[in-house]
Specification:
heterodimer; A: 204 residues; mainly alpha; 8 helices; B: mainly alpha; 2 domains; elongated
Chain lengths: 204, 77
C-alpha cells in the first residue's frame, strides 16, 4: 500500500488544528469561533463527524439501542443540515452575505460541548449506573451531575450564539429572534425523536 | 519584520470580520459589552459558580426530587 506523504501530513495537520480549535473554544470561545468561521480545511469537519460516529457506535455496543449506529448517525446528519439550512435561509432575509462554509464550520465546532456531555454521561452510566437513590451520596452526585450538565449547557449556548453571530454577522436581537424561531419547530421535532426513541436528549 | 506585519494584518482582518453589536441604545450597548467581556475568555470561571448557585436553588425548591432530574439525564443519551 502506497501512502501519499503530503496527504498524510495534511491529515495530521488537520487533526492538530481540530485539537487547537477545541482548546480555543474552551479558553477563548470568542476568538476561537471567530477563527473557525474563517476555516477552509474540510478534513477538520471529517474528524469531528468521525468522533460523533464513534460515539454512536459506542452507545450501540455498550448500552444497546433499538437503532443501528449508522441510522442514528444519518438522523444526526439530517438534524444538522436542517439546522444549518434553517439559519442560512432565514439569515438571508437579514443579511445577504451569509457564507455557507462559515455556518458549516462554526456549527460543527459547536458540537464540542454536546460531545463532551454525551461521552461523560456514557462514562457515568457505567461507573455509577442509574437510578439514583435519595441517599446522601445519591443527592451529592445529583448535585455534581446537574451542575456539570448545566455548565456544559450554558457553554453550548454561548458557542451556539457565537456560531450564528460569526457566520451570519447579525446583531444580538436578530440572533435571539432566529433562535426563538428555530426552537418553535425544533422542540416538537425533538419530542417526536424522543417518542421514536432515536434521541432522548437532542444531539445538537 | 515582514512576517510580523503580515500576521498583524491577518489578526486585524479577523477582528473586523463582523460589525460591533448594536442594541439600539447606548446604555444597553455598554451593559452588553461589559457583561459579555467576562464570557470571552474562559467562561467557566463565571459559569461554574453561577451554575452551583442555580443548582443549589433548584435543590432548595425540589429537595430530594433533584435525584429524578439526574435519573432523567443519566438515561438521556
Amino acid at each position: 500500500m502506497v501512502f501519499d506523504k503530503k496527504k498524510v501530513t495534511n491529515l495530521i495537520a488537520s487533526f492538530i488544528f481540530v485539537i487547537r480549535n477545541f482548546f480555543f473554544l474552551v479558553f477563548f470561545p470568542y476568538k476561537g469561533m471567530r477563527r473557525i468561521s474563517l476555516e477552509k480545511d474540510y478534513w477538520q469537519i471529517v474528524f469531528i463527524f468521525l468522533t460523533v460516529f464513534i460515539y454512536f457506535n459506542l452507545v450501540y455496543f455498550l448500552r444497546g439501542s433499538s437503532y443501528p449506529p449508522t441510522f442514528t448517525f444519518f438522523i444526526f446528519l439530517v438534524n444538522f443540515f436542517l439546522m444549518i439550512g434553517f439559519f442560512y435561509i432565514l439569515g438571508k432575509f437579514f443579511n445577504r452575505k451569509i457564507k455557507k462554509r462559515a455556518l458549516f464550520f462554526t456549527f460543527s465546532y459547536s458540537l464540542l460541548p454536546t460531545l463532551i456531555w454525551f461521552f461523560t454521561t456514557l462514562f457515568f452510566y457505567f461507573i455509577i449506573p442509574p437510578p439514583r437513590t435519595f441517599s446522601l451520596m445519591g443527592r451529592l452526585f445529583s448535585f455534581f451531575f446537574i451542575t456539570f450538565s448545566l455548565t456544559v449547557f450554558f457553554w453550548k449556548l454561548i458557542l451556539f450564539y457565537l456560531a450564528i453571530r460569526f457566520s451570519t454577522g447579525l446583531s444580538f436581537f436578530k440572533i435571539v429572534y432566529l433562535i426563538f424561531l428555530f426552537l418553535l419547530w425544533y422542540i416538537p421535532y425533538s419530542i417526536l425523536l424522543y417518542y421514536l426513541k432515536i434521541f432522548r436528549v437532542p444531539f445538537i | 519584520m515582514k512576517n510580523c506585519s503580515l500576521r498583524f494584518r491577518k489578526q486585524i482582518g479577523e477582528v473586523f470580520i463582523i460589525q460591533p453589536n448594536d442594541l439600539g441604545n447606548k446604555f444597553l450597548n455598554f451593559l452588553f459589552k461589559k457583561s459579555t467581556a467576562y464570557l470571552k475568555k474562559f467562561p467557566f470561571f463565571y459559569l461554574f459558580p453561577a451554575t452551583v448557585i442555580i443548582v443549589f436553588l433548584i435543590y432548595l425548591l425540589l429537595g430530594k426530587r433533584i435525584v429524578t432530574i439526574t435519573n432523567l439525564l443519566q438515561y438521556g443519551f
